[in-house]
Amino acid sequence: MVYAIKNGILTDSNNPVRQIRSKNTGGAFPTPPKIVVIHFTAGGSAASSANWFASKDNTNSSAHVVIDRDGTIIQCVNFGEVAWHAGKSTWRDIVGLNRHSIGIEIANWGALRGGANGWSNAAGQRIDNVVMAVHRNGNPDGSRTPIGWEAYPEAQFEATVALVRALRAVYPIAEIVGHDDIAPVRKSDPGPAFDMVRFRQRVLGGRDDDGPNTGVIRSPGGLNLRSGPGTNNAVVQLLADGTKVLPIGANGSWLEVTVLDAAGKPSKTGWVHGHYVDLD
Known about the structure:
Blueprint: E1 3-6, E2 9-12, E3 15-16, E4 18-19, E5 25-28, E6 35-40, H1 46-54, E7 65-67, E8 73-75, E9 81-83, E10 90-91, E11 94-95, E12 101-106, E13 113-115, E14 118-120, E15 130-133, E16 147-150, H2 154-168, E17 175-178, H3 179-182, H4 196-204, E18 215-217, E19 223-226, E20 235-239, E21 244-251, E22 254-260, E23 266-273, E24 277-279
Parallel strand pairs: 4-8, 6-12, 6-17, 7-12
Antiparallel strand pairs: 1-2, 2-3, 5-9, 7-8, 10-11, 13-14, 15-16, 18-21, 18-24, 19-20, 21-22, 22-23
Helix pairs in contact: 2-4
C-alpha cells in the first residue's frame, strides 16, 4: 500500500480507495486539523459501518474512514470536511473535537461477553482473537478486573499507521488520541487491545530523527508516577501536564521513566501509563 491524499481523497498507488460517502458532515474545517481520533466500530465489517454512515436512517454520525480487519480502507468523508465522530468531547482547551480532528473508525467489537464457551461479540458470535485487559477508565460493565477485548490484527494496525503517516504529509497532525481520551466517561474505544504507545511511536517517530528519546506527559489533570507498572503500586509523585520524561523501560502499556526537571536533569524514576506520554 502506498497511500497519499489528493484533494481530501485517500489514494492507494494513485487510485482512490473505495468510497461510501456519508452526507453527515459539518462542512469545511475552520482550520487544518491537528488531531487524529481513533475509534472502534463495536461492530462487524468496515463496509457495514460505512453503509450505516451513508444510510438515510443515520442523521447524526460519520467518520472520515473505516478500516477493516484485513487492512482495507473505506473513505466516508473528505479529509477537508468535518465528520461527526467525536460527539461531546474535550481535549486540553479544545471543546468539541469534531471541528478539530480527523476520525478513524477501526472495525472491532471492543469489549466482549464472557461465557462457558469463551468470549463472544454483541451478536453472540465466538471471538478467538482476544486480549484480556482492564480499561484504564473502568470496563464498560463497571468491573475493574480483566475482561476479553477483540484484538486488532497486524494488517489492520499497519494500515492505520500508513494512513496517519499519509495524513501527516498533508495536515499538521501533532497528536493522536482515543475516543476514550476525549470522552472518558461515555466511551471506551479504541480500548486496551489497541497499543496506543506503539502506534504513536510508529506514526510520530522516525529513524531519521536525531535527538534525545524523550517524552512529554499529556494529562490535563496530572499523571501519577508509580513505584511499579500498575495502578496497585504506590504513587511516588503527581506529574503535571507537560512534564518531560526519559523512557528507560516498558512493561505492557506501562513505561518506566526518569522525570526531567526544568533544567533537563534527571530526578525521580518510576512508572506511568504510556497512553498519557507523547514520545518526541
